[in-house]
From TrEMBL:
<dbReference type="InterPro" id="IPR038454">
    <property type="entry name" value="DnaA_N_sf"/>
</dbReference>
<feature type="region of interest" description="Domain I, interacts with DnaA modulators">
    <location>
        <begin position="1"/>
        <end position="91"/>
    </location>
</feature>
<dbReference type="Pfam" id="PF00308">
    <property type="entry name" value="Bac_DnaA"/>
</dbReference>
<dbReference type="InterPro" id="IPR013317">
    <property type="entry name" value="DnaA_dom"/>
</dbReference>
<dbReference type="InterPro" id="IPR001957">
    <property type="entry name" value="Chromosome_initiator_DnaA"/>
</dbReference>
<feature type="binding site">
    <location>
        <position position="147"/>
    </location>
    <ligand>
        <name>ATP</name>
    </ligand>
</feature>
<dbReference type="GO" id="GO:0005737">
    <property type="term" value="C:cytoplasm"/>
</dbReference>
<feature type="region of interest" description="Domain III, AAA+ region">
    <location>
        <begin position="99"/>
        <end position="315"/>
    </location>
</feature>
<keyword id="KW-0235">DNA replication</keyword>
<feature type="binding site">
    <location>
        <position position="143"/>
    </location>
    <ligand>
        <name>ATP</name>
    </ligand>
</feature>
<comment type="subunit">
    <text>Oligomerizes as a right-handed, spiral filament on DNA at oriC.</text>
</comment>
<comment type="function">
    <text>Plays an essential role in the initiation and regulation of chromosomal replication. ATP-DnaA binds to the origin of replication (oriC) to initiate formation of the DNA replication initiation complex once per cell cycle. Binds the DnaA box (a 9 base pair repeat at the origin) and separates the double-stranded (ds)DNA. Forms a right-handed helical filament on oriC DNA; dsDNA binds to the exterior of the filament while single-stranded (ss)DNA is stabiized in the filament's interior.</text>
</comment>
<dbReference type="InterPro" id="IPR010921">
    <property type="entry name" value="Trp_repressor/repl_initiator"/>
</dbReference>
<dbReference type="InterPro" id="IPR027417">
    <property type="entry name" value="P-loop_NTPase"/>
</dbReference>
<keyword id="KW-0446">Lipid-binding</keyword>
<feature type="domain" description="AAA+ ATPase">
    <location>
        <begin position="132"/>
        <end position="260"/>
    </location>
</feature>
<feature type="compositionally biased region" description="Low complexity">
    <location>
        <begin position="76"/>
        <end position="87"/>
    </location>
</feature>
Length: 437
């Protein structure tokens, strides 16, 4: 095989079962490997290993950073090429899709040293559901991409294995479904919904702790799926052995397959994530700006993305370019003490109700009066930005609202901040007060 320059920008990552994970620097290289080399590589690997071996190709932009001089500005991302394995996991819209966020695909996920193993394991599972690691458990602190990978697996499988049934569920929904099924005498239906699937993706499994009956039911669901080689993937904020209020037999089952953690990303990965996000939103933000944000926000990617959104919102309101001065101003407001501060939902809700002079009952109630509804949406948005609470948990704090209502509020405020200066100022001022509370 002749040595081609672009081949130097590829890197074998790991062997997962019978799949070789190969990282490439960019979409062009991936396409070349897929179209020109896949068959040859797979044949050679299979000969060498004495068994059928597959290739999974993924994009790792850090390979560009490692091998090429830094560029000042990244052009807006090209339109996605024709779908192909892993790298383009979410570019096809999944049929009948319900709960998978279209933004959370393998293609939009940046692999770096902090998440490389989790990414590779998720890719292996998506390539060959039920045949590599089962169950796969991805754990780590909030806001680091666990849900993103779970959805990416779902999108990928729905796109490339049309006959496989995928079910994604948060543990809160699973628990509610189960409770409703019991009270409505529909447990058989519940079981069918969760056991007649080929891939079950369960988010935030730590919320099963202390829920004895749901644990019992999940134990049987797990066994049924596992015995018939159906894929189970779970996320958790802790490794199974630290899920102390979980039945030991469940904990040990969670450890059967592969457990992989996700750590906070290093500086290069944070910059690469911001760059990708900026490109996907067609924002022109120079390297200096991205580096500045990435140097200030280090532990939570949700917050990292939130900061870029706010910078973009202010630039849009001021009708100016995103530059360092503007970015510094926004981050000063966002981080009054120069660092990341996590707060609790109660503080956010109290401060919001005081700021808008409305009662807590109104904030959590059903009133559709514009000022109250807007305050409620801002409070939900800030809970998502400043706490580690999941969408269902935030919904529960706001009078038992559905997680989709919370998501709608978050997106609405996100979108409106770049158009409505009053709203931008309110959110900024309120954030500041909350962080000083
Ligand atoms: N490596 C990555 N590349 C691109 N985006 C990322 C990456 N990691 C996380 N993100 C983004 O950061 C945000 C938070 O990620 P996600 O919701 O998956 O976190 P999580 O670990 O599931 O957190 P939680 O436990 O709070 O649910 C999402 O918008 C996600 O797309």
């Amino acid at each position: 095989m002749p040595t081609r320059a672009w081949l130097r920008r590829t890197k074998p990552l790991a062997m997962h079962g019978s799949t070789l994970m190969l990282a490439v620097a960019d979409e062009t290289t991936r396409e070349r490997v897929e179209t020109k080399l896949r068959t040859e590589i797979e044949h050679k690997l299979s000969d060498h290993a004495g068994q059928v071996t597959h290739l999974a190709v993924m994009i790792d932009p850090s390979l560009v950073i490692e091998t090429e001089p830094a560029v000042e500005e990244q052009p807006a991302e090209a339109a996605p090429a024709a779908p192909s394995p892993i790298a383009n996991g979410g570019t096809r819209t999944a049929k009948g899709d319900d709960k998978l966020n279209p933004r959370y695909t393998f293609e939009s996920f940046v692999a770096g040293s902090s998440n490389r193993f989790a990414h590779a394991a998720a890719a292996a599972v998506a390539e060959q559901p039920g045949k590599s690691y089962n169950p796969l458990m991805i754990y780590g602190p909030s806001g680091l991409g666990k849900t993103h990978l779970l959805h990416a697996i779902g999108h990928y499988v729905r796109s490339y294995y049309e006959n496989l049934r995928v079910r994604y569920v948060s543990t809160e929904e699973l628990t509610n479904d189960f409770i409703n099924a019991i009270s409505d005498n529909r447990t058989a239906e519940f079981r069918r919904a969760y056991r007649d699937v080929d891939i079950l993706l369960v988010d935030d499994i730590q919320f099963l702790e202390s829920k004895i009956q749901t644990q019992e039911e999940f134990f049987h669901t797990f066994n049924t799926l596992h015995n018939s080689q159906k894929q189970i993937v779970m996320t958790s904020d802790r490794p199974p052995k630290l899920l102390e209020a979980l039945e030991p037999r469940l904990r040990s089952r969670f450890e059967w397959g592969l457990m992989t953690d996700i750590q906070p990303p290093d500086l290069e990965t944070r910059i690469a994530i911001l760059r990708k996000k900026a490109a996907s939103q067609r924002l022109t933000a120079g390297t200096q700006v991205l580096e500045f944000i990435a140097s200030k926000i280090t532990t939570n990617i949700r917050e990292l993305e939130g900061a870029l959104t706010r910078v973009a919102a202010l630039a849009s309101l001021n009708q100016q370019e995103i530059d360092l001065t503007l970015t510094e101003d926004v981050l000063r407001d966002l981080m009054p003490d120069g660092g990341e501060v996590r707060v609790d939902a109660e503080t956010i809700m109290n401060m919001t109700s005081r700021y808008f002079s409305i009662s807590m009952d109104d904030l959590t109630g059903a009133s559709r009066v514009a000022t109250i509804a807007s305050a409620r949406q801002i409070a939900m948005y800030l809970c998502r930005e400043l706490t580690d609470l999941s969408l269902p948990k935030i919904g529960a704090k706001f009078g038992g609202r559905d997680h989709t209502t919370v998501l709608h509020s978050v997106r609405k405020i996100d979108g409106k901040m770049g158009e409505d200066r009053d709203l931008f100022n309110q959110v900024t001022e309120l954030t500041n007060r909350i962080k000083h509370a």
